[in-house]
Amino acid sequence: MELPLSRGEAEALIAPGDDLELAAVNGPRSVVCSGSVAAVADLEKRCREAGIERHRLPVDYAFHSRQMEEAASVLAEALAELAPVAPALRLAPTVSGADEGALRDASYWARNVREAVAFHHAVGALDDGGVFVEIGAQPVLSRDIDATVGRLGAAIATLRRGGDGGSDLLG
Length: 171
What we know:
This protein is α+β, with helices and mostly antiparallel strands. The protein is 36% helix and 14% strand. The chain has seven helices and five strands, in the order βαββααααβαβα. The strands form two sheets. It has a three-stranded antiparallel β-sheet. The protein is globular and about 50 Å long. The model has no long low-confidence stretch (mean pLDDT 85).
């Protein structure tokens, strides 16, 4: 469930023992909580009662939560022979902090399924007044990039759901 809260505010909503985890910190006031269907429903109810906006994400799995441990293990095994090379562009890993070398380790990509995503931190690490390009069929992070970089940078989404591809980018 996506919430317009800071990391600290979201963590305060997660009680010890809840089957709920902070799955992503996407922007200064944009987080995602993940967990069992019952735990997410309870969080949704508590947010509604507290007047907190919320958006339930249309997913079938509780990504970036303990529910993904088995899938992460299977993925790690499947990627074991993968030998990623150094990227041509500067990248910031969203799971391992500033360690770009982690991107060349196949296990990083498996951990990315299970561990919390620190997208806001990664964007901040790369922010030097440049342009961020969100590549994907459903751009959802461009507003979080804009909120992180402010007037110093720009976010461009390459595709739009229902769009025709090339003209989406060209405007």
